[in-house]
Write a structure and sequence with these properties.
By secondary structure, the chain is mainly alpha-helical. It has a domain of 284 residues. The protein is built from 17 helices and four strands. The strands form two sheets. It has a two-stranded antiparallel sheet with strand order 1-2. Strands 3-4 form a two-stranded antiparallel sheet.
């Protein structure tokens, strides 16, 4: 059942969704994602209405009431997203073949499509992406004192909202705040750091308040990631930091990607064990379950013929500890089969490739930074996917990222025209200094 405080907060946010100006709708969703526990639910006639589902319904209600429908054409990202969700749903139903599975997956299907449609309807300009980034940075700053309280006292301050659980590992507290697991909080925080740096570099030199705000966002995102005491998010944070600092050399990202792929193949051919055995040796935070992840990947490869068509019900019969699927990629394979996995990888690759190529266009320097920041932020998710399967409210952030990429693809022609247009001397000077003010 839903906690009374969570119910009140959810109702307030729903009222805000219905009444705020259009440009602030995404901001309300970000606030709800960061501070309302996703596992809280209202049970009506045996049906669970979780918080995210309520937000999705209310967003669609606003769209209908105010006529704010998405009016563009579907592009490749939209179609990939549709096919990915449908393929995963059909595979799951074929595997389980029960009425309960149908009701459960129908609810997930409705949630997924509604949230994506809401984000596609309200992300209509670059300013909407910038505004979402700013609210995400502000949210991690506001969240940090709560995480510090949880780390120092061992009590999750979100217990009033129903999140009264704090995990421990080797005597260390693994902070989770309002998120469903410490790894998810760490993955979320790691993804905010590149946004903070991008907004910092894109802000006006004269706007010191914005610069201090973004700098504080960098510090808080690093602290919260470390406070989650999870190796996966810390590695994702390191990847994000390394990528965002390579802004000047971003044109070589494609070569670096091919080089990394070649290195992985080389290691796989020369190592005595398969290359995914490296997971067993990773322990950044201490007490990591690296061997479990290696075993999960190894069993997934060994049992390819079992899951490739439509997936399987679980992995416990593969002698995987507790049947725990700690990988977003393995989750797509196990619960959706090879087609679902390939569609997911295609979407991920498209997000990375398109945001990277847009950042290379001859645009305003601030806009280049913002696009590169989006690329680096999504890169942290790609790394986190190796060690955790997303669930709970962080799935909203993943859905929003796909919707942002779909918007960029929709505006591809305009961005390319801006990038190819002849530059005046004044335009060249603007590109040399970050004059854009995201506030």
């Amino acid at each position: 059942m839903i906690a009374p405080a969570t119910l009140v907060l959810t109702l307030l946010l729903c009222v805000a969704i219905l009444n705020v100006p259009r440009k602030h709708v995404i901001s309300i969703y970000v606030i709800g994602m960061c501070f309302v526990p996703a596992d809280q639910a209202m049970v009506i006639s045996g049906l669970d209405f979780k918080v995210l589902r309520i937000f999705a319904f209310v967003g669609c209600l606003r769209i209908v009431m105010k006529g704010e429908h998405y009016r563009g054409r579907l592009n490749i990202m939209d179609w990939l997203y549709i096919f990915w969700v449908v393929a995963g749903t059909l595979a799951y139903l074929l595997v389980w073949g029960s009425g309960k599975a149908f009701i459960y997956k129908l609810g997930v299907l409705v949630d997924t499509f509604m949230l994506y449609y809401v984000f596609r309807s309200y992300i209509t300009d670059i300013a909407d992406i910038v505004r979402a980034m700013m609210v995400l940075v502000g949210s991690i700053i506001v969240m940090t004192p709560f995480v510090m309280f949880e780390q120092f006292y061992g009590v999750n301050p979100f217990y009033i909202l129903g999140r009264d659980y704090t995990s421990h590992r080797d005597g260390r507290i693994r902070c989770s705040a309002a998120f469903s697991h410490a790894i998810l909080l760490g993955s979320f925080a790691a993804s905010i750091m590149p946004m903070s740096i991008a907004l910092l570099r894109a802000s006006s030199r004269k706007n010191m308040a914005t610069k201090l705000f973004c700098l504080l966002g960098v510090v808080c995102s690093i602290y919260v990631t470390i406070a989650s005491a999870s190796s996966g998010p810390i590695l994702a944070l390191m990847a994000g930091i390394g990528a965002v600092l390579c802004f000047r050399y971003r044109k070589y990202a494609g070569i670096a990607a091919y080089g990394l792929f070649g290195l992985v193949i080389f290691l796989h051919l020369t190592m005595k064990a398969p290359v995914w055995h490296l997971f067993s040796r990773i322990d950044v935070a201490g007490g990591s379950t690296g061997y479990h992840r290696y075993h999960l990947y190894d069993q997934t490869v060994n049992n390819f013929s079992e899951w490739a068509l439509i997936g399987v019900k679980g992995v416990a019969h593969w002698n995987v500890w507790a049947g725990d699927i700690t990988s977003m990629y393995v989750a797509q394979a196990v619960f959706g089969g090879l087609l679902t996995l390939l569609l997911f990888i295609w979407m991920v690759a498209l997000c990375l490739r398109f945001s990277w190529r847009c950042s290379l266009l001859r645009l305003d320097l601030a806009l280049q930074w913002l696009l590169w920041g989006f690329f680096c932020s999504f890169l942290t998710h790609v790394v986190s996917f190796l060690s955790v399967s997303y669930f709970g409210q962080i799935t909203m952030l993943m859905t929003m990222s796909f919707a942002m990429c779909a918007f960029l693809i929709q505006r591809k022609k305009r961005l390319m025209e801006m990038g190819r247009s002849p530059e005046s001397t004044a335009a060249k000077q603007r590109r040399k200094a970050p004059l854009f003010n995201p506030a």
